């Protein structure tokens, strides 16, 4: 049983499971755990961006049990995560799919694609992190790879074969369940 620093959440690895197996854990939880590790080790500072909502009504049955009963989105959100690593701005969206052969682009909103395009154009490292739940595999696909594909193919999906060719398999470990920084190190060393 592990209690992560600064968290009340406890993760207990199921009996007889592989250390690298993360079945049942969501991609977002894995990224948040990894980000916490990066922050503690002073490797990177990356945070999940809150969704901008406008609270309309709150029920107060007791002072410490306030419950939001009505709210709406103030504006379209951009991407899930923002941060900085080695003086580079990071901006990325994380998605999961149960599909075994492709990632459906219907999972991405146009405003998210536009945002990734804009931050990439201004020098940030923009990317997607996509987990194929059926295989328990996670891939990082840089905006510089998938944006031209979206523009040229006018496709409604990213085939897994294309992702494997143009993306990077993200390493997993018990301590860092979605180690995308290792991939970014490789990307930056190729760039230098």
Q: How many strand units?
A: 12
* Shape type: globular
Largest sheet: 6 strands, mixed
- Please give the radius of gyration in angstroms: 18 Å
In short:
The chain is of the alpha+beta class and 192 residues long. It has helices at 27-40, 110-121, 143-153, 160-166, 180-191, and strands spanning 2-3, 10-11, 45-48, 53-59, 67-73, 81-85, 88-97, 102-104, 125-132, 137-142, 157-159, 168-169.
Describe the structure.
The chain is α+β, with helices and mostly antiparallel strands and 192 residues long. The chain has a single domain (2-50, 76-191), classed as Trna Endonuclease, Chain: A, domain 1 (3-Layer(aba) Sandwich), CATH 3.40.1350. Helices cover 29% and strands 31% of the residues. Strands 3-6-7-9-10-12 form a six-stranded mixed sheet, sandwiched between helices. It has a two-stranded antiparallel ribbon with strand order 1-2. 27% of the residues are buried. The model is unreliable at 1-5 and 7-24 (pLDDT under 50).
Topology, pairings included?
Elements lengths: L1 E2 L6 E2 L15 H14 L4 E4 L4 E7 L7 E7 L7 E5 L2 E10 L4 E3 L5 H12 L3 E8 L4 E6 H11 L3 E3 H7 L1 E2 L10 H12 L1
Parallel strand pairs: 7-9
Antiparallel strand pairs: 1-2, 3-6, 4-5, 6-7, 8-11, 9-10, 10-12
């Amino acid at each position: 049983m592990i209690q992560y620093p600064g968290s009340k959440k406890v993760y207990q690895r199921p009996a007889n499971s592989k250390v690298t197996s993360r079945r049942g854990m969501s991609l977002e939880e894995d990224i948040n755990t990894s980000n916490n590790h990066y922050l503690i080790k002073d490797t990177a500072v990356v945070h999940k961006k809150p969704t901008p909502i406008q609270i309309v009504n709150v029920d107060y049955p007791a002072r410490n049990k306030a419950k939001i009963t009505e709210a709406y989105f103030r504006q379209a959100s951009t991407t899930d995560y923002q941060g900085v690593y080695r003086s580079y701005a990071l901006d990325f969206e994380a998605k999961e799919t149960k599909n075994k052969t492709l990632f459906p682009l219907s999972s991405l909103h146009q405003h998210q694609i536009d945002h990734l395009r804009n931050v990439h154009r201004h020098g940030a490292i923009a990317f997607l992190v996509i987990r194929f739940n059926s295989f328990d595999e996670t891939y990082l696909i840089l905006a510089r790879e998938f944006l031209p594909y979206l523009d040229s193919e006018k496709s409604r999906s990213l085939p897994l074969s294309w992702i494997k060719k143009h993306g990077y398999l993200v390493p997993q470990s018990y301590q860092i369940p979605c180690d995308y920084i290792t991939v970014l190190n490789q990307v930056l060393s190729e760039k230098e």
